[in-house]
Amino acid sequence: MIVKMSKWATPEQIAAVETKLHEWGYKTGKMVGEEITLIGVYGDISRLPTGEIREMGGVDALIPISRAYKRAAQKGEPGRLIHKTVRIGDMEVGGDALTVIAGPCSVESEAQIMEAARMVKAAGAKVLRGGVVKYRSSPYSGWEGIGSGSVEALRHGLKLIVKAGKEFELPTVVEVLDPHDVAIYEDMGVDCLQVGEPNSKNQALLNRLRETPLPVIHKRGNSLDIEAYLLWVERIMAEGKENVILCERGIVSPNRYTRNTLDLGGIAALYYQLSCLPIAIDASHGTGIRDLVHPMTLAGIMAGASVVLVEAHPNPLVAKSDGFQGLFPEQLTRLVTACERVWELRRCLEPLYIPSALLERQYETRVAADRTRFFGVT
Amino acid sequence: MIVKMSKWATPEQIAAVETKLHEWGYKTGKMVGEEITLIGVYGDISRLPTGEIREMGGVDALIPISRAYKRAAQKGEPGRLIHKTVRIGDMEVGGDALTVIAGPCSVESEAQIMEAARMVKAAGAKVLRGGVVKYRSSPYSGWEGIGSGSVEALRHGLKLIVKAGKEFELPTVVEVLDPHDVAIYEDMGVDCLQVGEPNSKNQALLNRLRETPLPVIHKRGNSLDIEAYLLWVERIMAEGKENVILCERGIVSPNRYTRNTLDLGGIAALYYQLSCLPIAIDASHGTGIRDLVHPMTLAGIMAGASVVLVEAHPNPLVAKSDGFQGLFPEQLTRLVTACERVWELRRCLEPLYIPSALLERQYETRVAADRTRFFGVT
Amino acid sequence: MIVKMSKWATPEQIAAVETKLHEWGYKTGKMVGEEITLIGVYGDISRLPTGEIREMGGVDALIPISRAYKRAAQKGEPGRLIHKTVRIGDMEVGGDALTVIAGPCSVESEAQIMEAARMVKAAGAKVLRGGVVKYRSSPYSGWEGIGSGSVEALRHGLKLIVKAGKEFELPTVVEVLDPHDVAIYEDMGVDCLQVGEPNSKNQALLNRLRETPLPVIHKRGNSLDIEAYLLWVERIMAEGKENVILCERGIVSPNRYTRNTLDLGGIAALYYQLSCLPIAIDASHGTGIRDLVHPMTLAGIMAGASVVLVEAHPNPLVAKSDGFQGLFPEQLTRLVTACERVWELRRCLEPLYIPSALLERQYETRVAADRTRFFGVT
Amino acid sequence: MIVKMSKWATPEQIAAVETKLHEWGYKTGKMVGEEITLIGVYGDISRLPTGEIREMGGVDALIPISRAYKRAAQKGEPGRLIHKTVRIGDMEVGGDALTVIAGPCSVESEAQIMEAARMVKAAGAKVLRGGVVKYRSSPYSGWEGIGSGSVEALRHGLKLIVKAGKEFELPTVVEVLDPHDVAIYEDMGVDCLQVGEPNSKNQALLNRLRETPLPVIHKRGNSLDIEAYLLWVERIMAEGKENVILCERGIVSPNRYTRNTLDLGGIAALYYQLSCLPIAIDASHGTGIRDLVHPMTLAGIMAGASVVLVEAHPNPLVAKSDGFQGLFPEQLTRLVTACERVWELRRCLEPLYIPSALLERQYETRVAADRTRFFGVT
Q1: How far apart are CA B124 and CA A257, in angstroms?
Q2: Which residue from A47, A57, A142 is facing B47, i.e. has the nearest CB?
Q3: Is the pTM of this model over 0.90?
Q4: DSSP at D220
Q5: Angle between helix C329-349 and C290-303 (nearest 10)
Q6: Residue in D32, D56, D65 nearest the CB of B29
Q7: What average pLDDT is seen over chain A?
Q8: Which of B102, D199, D315, D329 has its CA 20 to 30 A from that of C146?
Q9: Would B74 be classed as within a structural domain?
Q10: Minimal Cα–Cα distance from C364 to chain A, Å?
């Protein structure tokens, strides 16, 4: 962190900032320029009371240097990155194998979720997803999920998907919307919780999830910078929780053709530079167009995802919600096959990726010679 | 609503869509083009199961014609718009008078909120605001509000602000984050609830607010189109609730200098075209820069706001949160004065605004003559 | 500018960066942290070859501290800002008086522009605008302006608007699209050139405008941060040109209701913090909705604009381009009246604006006392 | 196109719109709803004077149904899409083979571009790129390209890259900024022209390119919707030109970590649904981070690109511009190898992609049975 003093700051104000930082146990450095003075703050600034500093006399701005998220951060170094795994049921996610999580947008009936689980298993996907209380952008959509309206309905809906999962030996992922429901999800045997996009910044819910032993898939809010997203993820992890999975499902942009804009560059940044956590690609919500789910899922794997979230339905034409983006069974089967081939290739191509840090030294030694060679100067 | 059939749709598929719509009680119309057929759906489509239609064979897309929000909508006509009022305590908001709602970001102590209420009253503002449980983007900020952590803390925090409000005869507005806390807010005597930006799409919270008799200020999410925002607002109102206030507090954009981008064009669209609800301008969060709060609040009034939300603190230099955007007491006093002057002028200038619908007929009669006059053609 | 070294940087790499900066005549400072070292660069960095630094071994990133635009920048201090004026013909723009620039989207015929100029004059606006070569988003619109297609057509179109301006004693503003046409505009007697939004980053055109004595209105590109915009404006001014006017006409955002999103916070930032140049508000393009032009123009003035750009037509129903956002004559007349009233009020309210820098000292002296008062600590 | 009449439109106004459309040779249809009337316009509406319609009395809005771009559009049908090829020199682009276009940001000297061409050839790339006049966001960067400042300089710069291309049998791609320079590029033997992002909406330049026989790579502007982009591309093609290549190089979004946000969903939409033209991925500008170029290029191919644009330099540490995003030679070599492997896999996986249109009929026949099966209703 750098504290930038204003050009009207007095020496006393500058000294006061330094004193305050020392009181809090930080070491500082200082650069006195012609117009302005900068004060560097050393060490772990994630707990620095920045508001208090920003308010001190003569302070113009705070300039971040190191990141305010710690647990969600990548801690390796170029060429030796650290990528953690997370368990969902007895599946290990984020390791050597790709994990495809598939299922309908909503659990609609016992027969439907059973059939969906059969489809998911047959397609070769490894985890079953299905919503029990649904987000709807219009209050008049009529259907807010089999589990909406009462605790009994919620328990009933969760029971159905857990039963379907057990029948076909698939761990289950279900979205949770209300912090007070978390215990019910745990109690009913759900294997993994999901935070949906509209709740990405729901502080009450995220705080509550600190306490669950279940893994959590936290979807990126559609207006969040990739590092701001990590700071919301960090909220779940702040007291020690480790088993969190990231998920890119699209952000806002000037493109209006797709429902959202999948930020695969964000996935690549997370995987190659910023985070140690497994990353999921959700191209169903990320495009909102059934026929773009296939290519965008494959592209997401190539960018760095190791988890695939995808909506599919035994017959999307009768789905009660979001059927227009759910895959037909044949499409799911072929997508899983294609995903495995792309994953295999990505793993095989990994040795071809050389981080610049491993090359820079060598090219530095040539700088003078190359300047002469190219520009005729020394 | 128009149902656009794909160019490969069969006559049977087109007939099936019409039949289904008729079953649901809608009248339809049809336009058969060279390549595609369009089916128009007449009547109130707010409860139409669009997902089911979208999934029918041969359907390419649904094209909205009329709006899916009804209660939040403007129901007047050009030149005779309808603008409702909402009561906060015994204040009437959205009517002939401007309402300034001011106070600190957070209730920090009894002494602080008392002093803040005194400041607000002295400045001429009419409603006291103050957060008791706070949103923080970093989980390590340390301070999440005097009311965070337990029901007792929440009750204590609410008690302080309600007491301060009563002492200075100011109704109070407090943000609520958890649906299960609503009853506590009501019980403690808060006069108005606020939904913050990160919860703008929090379905569990919005559904719960349908039942409260208290007025609600619902802040626009920073990634929401102005009509998508009204659809989330409609969620609170869907079962009959009327006392809701809109609030523009900034959206994402390519401008990175201000913390958010205040969409005053959205305010003007709401006021002059889309909604009957009172509109608040929150330039504190909308700019994130203390010295821009004054001009942007005034601009917001000029665009159509009749409620001002503004952060101020007896001494922002000691504020525990967001002090950098809170006004100094002198700034608040002068802003309230300026707001009243701008409001007065806006009211006085209203007769100068002529909706185009009142002029079109007259100019239509001149079209032929003007074409001849300008272009020499008939 | 701060040079942030990577955590793997060697002492030799750090020394090399310092040496290079010294060779270029810069003074430097250094802060050695636990993990990383920062090197501060003092002085005017606008001509620093940043690319070369960024490429040196061990350099992680460059962090800007002071601004890379100089001529377009605000050079005053809080409470004593400097706001320059620019002449268009014999009008002084940006000073004590508001300047309304009005006219049709396009010059369509001699009769039309004459009638338009009469309307503009009668309404009380001071400058006449009108396009001679038009931007069209579709290549099939059919009409690309009276001046498109040949040098003769261009001269003819320019002659018409200049003649109309002279007849009604109104200086004229016309958009230029091709750098090779600038001399023709000068030759034909146009009083002010305009750079349209699609050309906001057209380097060849901006470079050419360095040489014209005519004033230039440079419209902000719809994807530009407000400071990135100033850097493109600076391109015109880089070799000494001073007479440039800024213009906010809308940027992209999640709001899809208006054609663009007017960033009035950007206007306030320019006026109160960033720039010394006059600022125009163009609510015609900024909203794309005729009935929102009036309120948004007034809001723009309140935010800091002193120039109004507005489209109006003697009969917009016969306009060949963009008529849907052009005002009817009655609307223009009333808007000019309203603008003057708002301008007058803004001037009158100016003493109520107190920059925080003038208050901070006084509140700093109270910090300890207020902490004790509010929190019971010293 | 649908013309939506306002709810206050009179029967006379509705009839007038129909009459006007018939005069222009269009057939129409009509749907009369409870509140509003819609008029459908049949046939090729790309040349419909929409402005004139929009201005007619009683017209509320125009709702597009079919696309206003024709030549750039996809004209096949699901399962039988049409993808055209474009020739650059004697290379066929967009067909069975992937085309990698590589080279430095700028031509810096004869020695440098020769060495760069050698590197490009050795890496296995097929086309040489290099800028001769450069875009720079700061006017003070100092270096605007070896070809800037005079016609002689431009000719000299172009001569160098063409010579290097010939020496290593690589066709060349060079960006053109000024419409008046096109003939010089043709004359000097450049094989392909490029329109850069800042010029994506430069009408004068795009109009001029209609006349060149050379192929053109047109980069998407960073604020353009994908279909709005196609409309600007259509401008080059409007009079018959066919040899145009699309290029995704990043758009604005809330993500601030990467320089731009690569919209790979836009690539997938172009390839699978909207356009027949070859698509390039430019991950150098699209990420602005050297170490993300590799994964994002591969992801772009998987999404639908068949052309790769990538910056590389014999020693990026001495590059005069944008070296921070240019690959080191080893990185280029490995990227080309990886691209070929990914391309090969994509081709091999193509049979796994099933457009929904090919499945819908079959699932429609099951709808009643599946409703009964899942929901127990008929």
Answers
A1: 48
A2: A142
A3: yes
A4: P
A5: 20
A6: D32
A7: 92
A8: D199
A9: no
A10: 6
Give φ, ψ of C293 to 5 degrees.
-65, -45
Q: Residue D260 maps to which CATH number?
A: 3.20.20.70
3-state SS assignment for residue D248: strand
Q: Is the dihedral of CA B304, B309, B315, B316 positive or negative?
A: negative
Contact C370, B318 (CB under 8 A): yes
* Each residue's pLDDT tens digit, C228-240: 999 999 999 999 9
Residues facing D129 on adjacent strands: D173
Q: State the alpha helices, DSSP H only, in chain B.
A: 11-23, 50-54, 110-123, 151-167, 182-188, 203-209, 226-237, 264-269, 283-287, 290-303, 329-349, 357-364, 367-375
Q: What angle do CA A176, A180, A181 make, to 5 degrees?
A: 40
- Whole-angstrom distance, CA of residue D185 vs CA of residue D158: 7
Q: Is C54 on the interface with D (CB under 8 A)?
A: yes
CATH number at residue A24: 3.30.70.1140
Could you tell me if A258 and A136 lie in one domain? yes
Contact call for C201 and D135, based on CB within 8 A: yes
Establish how many alpha carbons lie within 13 A of residue A44's alpha carbon, considering only the half-sphere containing its beta carbon.
6
The span from the CA of B248 to the CA of B236, in Å, is 17
Show the domain range for C323.
86-351
What is the tens place of the pLDDT at every residue in D51-81? 778 778 788 878 777 677 889 999 898 899 9
Q: Are D293 and D284 in contact (CB under 8 A)?
A: yes
Specify the DSSP element, H or E, that contains C173. strand C172-175
**Residue A244 and residue A120 in one domain:** yes
- Comparing CB atoms, the residue among C54, C136, C324 nearest residue D324 is C54
Number of alpha carbons in the 13 Å side-chain half-sphere of residue D289? 23
Tokens of A345: 């290739």
Q: Do D21 and D152 reside in the same domain of the chain?
A: no
What pLDDT, in 10s, does the model give residues D282-305?
A: 999 999 999 999 999 999 999 999
Q: So what's the pLDDT on residue B40?
A: 85
**What does the DSSP assignment read for B91-104?**
EEESSSS-EEEEE-
Identify the residue whose tokens are 């002029």: B359
Burial of C126 (0-12, 13-18, 19+ CB in 10 A): buried
Task: Say if D23 is an interface residue toward chain B (CB within 8 Å).
Answer: no
* Tokens representing residue D47 in the block: 């040349």
In this complex, the chains that touch B, judged by 3 or more CB pairs closer than 8 A, are A, C, D
Least confident residue range of A113-122, C93-102, C208-217, D133-142: D133-142
Give the whole-angstrom CA distance, residue C221 versus residue C111.
33
pLDDT (0 to 100) of residue C377:
61
β-strand partners of C131: C106
| Chains adjacent to D (≥3 CB pairs closer than 8 angstroms) | A, B, C
Which among C223, C254, C361 is the nearest to A252, CB-wise?
C254
User: In terms of domains, do A138 and A31 share one?
Assistant: no
D33 and D158 share a domain? no
| Neighbouring C-alpha atoms within 13 Å toward the C-beta of C54 | 21
pLDDT-based confidence at A115, cuts 50/70/90?
A: very high
Please give the Cα distance from B311 to A51 (Å, whole number): 15
Provide the token pair at A279: 């990353």
Strand C2-5 vs strand C59-63: parallel, antiparallel, or unpaired?
A: antiparallel
Number of domains in chain D: 2
Query: Is C368 part of a structural domain of the chain?
Result: no
Residue in D213, D238, D237 with CA at minimum distance from that of residue D89: D213
Q: Taking CA atoms, what residue in B is nearest to C259?
A: B265
Burial (CB count within 10 angstroms: exposed 0-12, middle 13-18, buried 19+), residue C95? middle
Nearest to A117 by CA among A155, A157, A169, A159: A169
More confident residue, C166 or B319: C166
Cα separation values, D302 from A102, D282, D350, Å:
21, 14, 11
Residues B53, B97 within the same domain: no
DSSP class of residue D180 equals G
